[in-house]
Amino acid sequence: MNNSRMNEVLNLVADGKMSAEEASSELTLITPAPDLDFATLDHSRSERIGFPEVVYGLSKTPKDTAEIAARIYDHSGVVLVTKSSEEAFELFNKQVPEAVWEEGPRAIWADRRDNPDLIPGVAVVAAGTSDLPVAREAVLTATLMGCEVNLITDVGVAGLHRLSSRADELGEARVVIVVAGMEGALPSVVGGLVKAPVIALPTSVGYGVSLGGVAALLAMMNSCAPGVSVVNIDNGFGAGYQAASIVGATWR
């Protein structure tokens, strides 16, 4: 939005021709001035959609990652960096001593907000221990967004008795993220057992013919169980964000 349009909006409010709510919605679309010479940060994202900009760390230099994360944290009081590196964490940690490094999902986060009570209802179900790094990215994302998350691990289709023993927990969930590699069958099984929406999260776990998670992705997209949607391979962040949106954590 340019300055002339901003003035126009303010004049419309002053003349009673636009409500404060309408003006607020339009003004949040203002593109911020660049904070850094290599990145333009979206500091109004939290006001628009409920959570600040999340940093995708892969392919960024550690220095750039740390600088971007520090600016977001300074403005928002919370930051999440996915698919990052310990070197980036060390640089960020020098500026933000309370920062945390999560080894499994290779994520960086920090949170200084006074958080209200967490919203229950999110379950994350991991088929195998090898799927845990991606599952934990989903858990971390949903937790930072205000959800209470129940992580259920190692209940893949090779031993369905392990899943049936957790049926009560699954039945209490308002949304279930199901994380699996190999043949990707677990989301279909869970989808046939619960009334909650199921978010299928394929991982790149598996032997050669699994094609780095493509086999699991295609199997999940062809699920015969109703209520199953699918995110991209190893996208724990996307699954956690969607789950938080379903239970309403981003609306607060």
TrEMBL record:
SMART domains: AIRC
Top-level taxon of origin: Bacteria
One function term, GO molecular function aspect: hydrolase activity
InterPro entries the UniProt entry points to: P2CMN_synthase_LarB, PurE_dom
Record-level GO BP terms: 'de novo' IMP biosynthetic process
Ranges where the PurE domain occurs: 120-252
Record Pfam families: AIRC
PANTHER family on file: PHOSPHORIBOSYLAMINOIMIDAZOLE CARBOXYLASE-RELATED, SLL1489 PROTEIN
Name under which the protein is recorded: Nickel pincer cofactor biosynthesis protein LarB
